[in-house]
Amino acid sequence: IVWGACFMGKGVRRAKTRRQHVSAAQLQGEIKMLNAQLGPLGLKVRDVQGDGNCLFRAASDQMYETSCRHSQIRQEVMQYIKDFPDDFAPFVEDDEPFEDYVARMQEDGEWGGNIEIQAMSVLYHADFVIHVYDGPRLEVRNPGATAVWHICYLSGEHYGSVRAVDRDKQEDDEPFE
Question: How confident is the model at residue 20 (pLDDT cuts 50, 70, 90)?
Fold first, then answer.
């Protein structure tokens, strides 16, 4: 397995406690600023619901052009991680057994991170480009990739999909606040 940039560290679960501090207005402001940064590249953020499934919703949007298949993506990714423990167990926090991690992450609403992105990259043969506001693009590369998925990471707690401006649908496939 080829690992890309580990940019958010192992503390995804610990970070959950501070996630409630980012307001919707702050998040929308960051999306607006990121869109200004992405515009010259012909890209635009397509936000997804922030219900704990945002990484899987963003991946679903990249694969199917709808975030509605996030549960399917989550289950496929977690099954892949479960099937290849030697590739993923070393990256699970030391205080959580691998089997417990997999079981927890199979649950709706659990926040995904680096481990899940790497698994998606291999499972779906996709390189990831992760856009962050006012920072370098982060990449997860997979030698077997046949696609490139663009997502964004906002305020240290939320993923969104990034689409080409001419590919972006105007209507939401799933209304949310």
Answer: low
Length of the chain: 177
Q: Which run of H or E residues covers position 45?
A: strand 43-46
How far apart CA 41 and CA 125 sit, in angstroms, is: 23
Q: Does domain 52-126+134-177 have CATH number 3.90.70.80?
A: yes
Question: For position 22, what pLDDT does the model report?
Answer: 81
On whether the CB atoms of residues 114 and 8 are closer than 8 A, the answer is yes
Q: Which of 47, 54, 61, 152 is catalytic?
A: 54
**Helix pair 114-123, 70-83: axis angle to 10 deg:** 90
Q: Please tell me which residue in 21, 51, 100, 125 is annotated as part of the active site.
A: 51
Alpha carbon distance 91, 109 (integer Å): 21
Q: Is 166 a catalytic residue?
A: no
DSSP string for residues in 83-131: H-HHHHGGGS-TTS-HHHHHHHHTSTTPPP-HHHHHHHHHHTTEEEEEE
CA triple 43-16-163, angle to 5 deg: 10
Let me know if 54 is a catalytic residue.
yes
Sequence spans of domains, the chain: 52-126+134-177
